[in-house]
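Fold this complex.
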Amino acid sequence: MDMLGMYPTFYVPGIGTAWVMGIIGVIHVVASHTSVGASFLFALLETKAYREDKPQLMDFIKKYGMFLLVFSYIIGSITGPGIWYAITVASPRGVGGLIHNFVWVWAAEWVYFTVEVIGVYALVYLIGKVDAKTHLKLTWSFALASWATMLLIVGILSFMMWPGNEAWYQTGSTNDAFYNLNFFAHLGTRTGSMVAMAAVVGLMVASRLKDMALRRSVVKFLAPIGLVGGLFAVMMFLYYLQTLPNNAVVMLNTHLLPVYARGMVAVFVTATLYLVFAWWKPHRLYTSLTVAMFAFISIVGVWPEERMRESMRKPYVAGQYIYGNQVIARDVPGKGIVGEVDKIAEHGLLKLHPFVPDRLRVINDSNRLEVGRLLTKVACANCHSLEPGTPLRNIPDKFHGATDEDLIAAFMQGPLKHGTQPYMPRIDLPDEEVRAIAHFLATVNSGKDVDHLIAEQQKLATKVAAK
Amino acid sequence: MKNIFRLGLAALLLATSTVQAQPLGEPAPDVGAGKKRAAACFACHNPDGIAKIPGTPHLAGQERGYLENALRAYRDGQTRQNPIMNAMAKPLSDRDIVNIAAYYSLQTRMNNGPAR
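Structure:
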């Protein structure tokens, strides 16, 4: 029988691979948005310096540029490859699907990224060494290249949510995937928030300026731009919410907004008040406060935003055709991809998954628990951690500690088999496999040390085999 | 405090009504056992009987007899058909149904807004 193209499942206890990815991703987004936003602030500031003949503004640009080099580019380029590693391990088929769609988009992004990195070095080190007009052109090219990298990534990220049209499934064309339904809304949201974030970082740098007149002119310039950016981001976010698929709307209303809505409003209000205050009283701007503000935006603003985008996409990782647990959800004729749910229902994961150890392919009394653990990891652990009390919507708590195998099995034979929960995949498994999973979950819920039990059983099994 | 009082009162009422309604020899419902058996149901209906998932009904404070009938109907799968509840009710014994129905019927609808 043909195996499915599945990969081994990596599982990080407690936080799951999903959070590992999330944490790296948030650091990366903070760094990269700041640098893209800053590139625009530079270009605008420098245009002002050039038109009004205020070369002292270039001092500020140089300071901010140095800060960016150290902060954003180093952090951004460490976390960038970090994301690649993390997603490849956590969601190999999701990444594979994206690469098969967007390989040239990513190639183009790399070209712009190279321009961007060279640009920021050139920009900082050539201040005062080339004539003002040439430098201004350089700065604008840097800004456009930076924004282009973001634009290209947003096309990919928003396709992950969904294509929003049937066309892509039929054609498989990169254009249909890239210009998906929520591309523009997503791009707008990120563009607005990156300007706002860059303005806050700009104020952080400005607060170090000793020359009060310079500080005043910089702050009076940055604050209103940041405000407009923030407002634009919020408007585009509201538009973005209108472009989401039904599964995302359900997740948003039942699980996400009740948790995150207050924090997001708080970030918007605080950031607005802060920018208004800075605009009004530039000399009262303290570095400590700006740093705190930036940390607040990153933690209370960016983390929920990234978490929400990841969670809303459930049950899919990409394009509404690959489930979070790596199973292909539907046919995509345009790419020659065939859905796998029904095939798994018929033959079972144990037969079709290439990385199941041979001694676990057939269930018996001495390996049922271990098979259950393996199957639970394969079928559920991309989205759920398995230890009670842990943060990635852990299954024991979702079942409120239920120890009844028959009812856990019923949950799989009813809701999961029929795909009734909009945020979970349709998971249809043969009876034996369902019972193994239920056995494992019930054992975890009863508070027993499962890993120890499994180790004991393995020891016993090898002894029996040796006889 | 008030809640405990109300719960106690409800339990008392219930106890008396069972005595009246049920044939002799049938033991009174065991609410504790109902709660334990219903843990897997909490995934959707929650321990307080107020559901958050769209399309999932609240069970808190519902008529006990009604809940029992509903669960039996789901279990038999003839008169009430639903892919979720037919599967969930299948393993339940008659005792389970009585106990779980008692557990949910004793809860109060504490949500302030209109039922979602």
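The interface with chain A takes residues 37, 39-44, 47, 52-54, 83-88, 90-91 of chain B (CB under 8 Å).
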